[in-house]
Task: structure prediction
Amino acid sequence: MSKLGSGAEHWNRVAREWVQKGYSNELLAEHKRKTYLGLVARWADVASAQSILKTDLFQEASGPDQFLFDLGQVNSNVIGIDVSSEIVGLAKSRANAYGVDAGKYLCCDVRHLPFRDSSISLIISDSTLDHFPGEADIVTALQELGRVLRPGGVLILTMDNKSNPTYPPYIIFRIWMRLRLSPYFIGRTLSLKKLRQNLEEIGFDVADCTAIFHYPHPDGLVRGLERSLRKLSRGKLDNAIRRGLALLDGLEGKRTRYLTGRYIAVKAVKRQAK
Result:
């Protein structure tokens, strides 16, 4: 475990501080929610999935960028997990307010899942595995996701995109975290090539891949820009900001999408047993 921390104790503290500070980037959150819902709709049949697993509950606990409650209104067979008991508790409270059953929201580590082999039909892992301190942790988590996913099941996974020119060297992230400029632990990530290689070795076929969220690092710059524009315009530029974010989404269709996207996204299908 990194000295900077990335386990349950760290995320419990993050949850407490996040609730105290509140969420101040409603338009970016709205855009993130719509993007993830669109990606899932494009790559999976949510309504017919026998069981759906989401690998963290941070958004569901803390902000309007959540999208699991939306999926829960389409399919009640939803499981949510998080390593932080406080995040799970907050997510359950918010789910109840949305009228969604949170009875299957569990506190556990994605590297050690409490589920039977081949028991899940759809897994959504949205920027969960890029919060580990080492690549070995990522591979362990991928193996565990492969274990619990049924043959023919779909894994939709996103991670930080290190091919984006604005993605800093990891030493910069370490400095940010040491100086408490980052609100949470930023972990390692994999290149798209290495992610595909690991998935194929574990027993997946990568059916599709793309890059999403086409605006630059760091988060603080983009968040600060939104807050400043909304404050100066007193909300009059909100629709213009929405249109700008939607326009940037068009970069996903360009050949340069892996240079502009903040996250890589893959759809992987677990191979049928021979």
Notes: The longest strand covers residues 149-160.
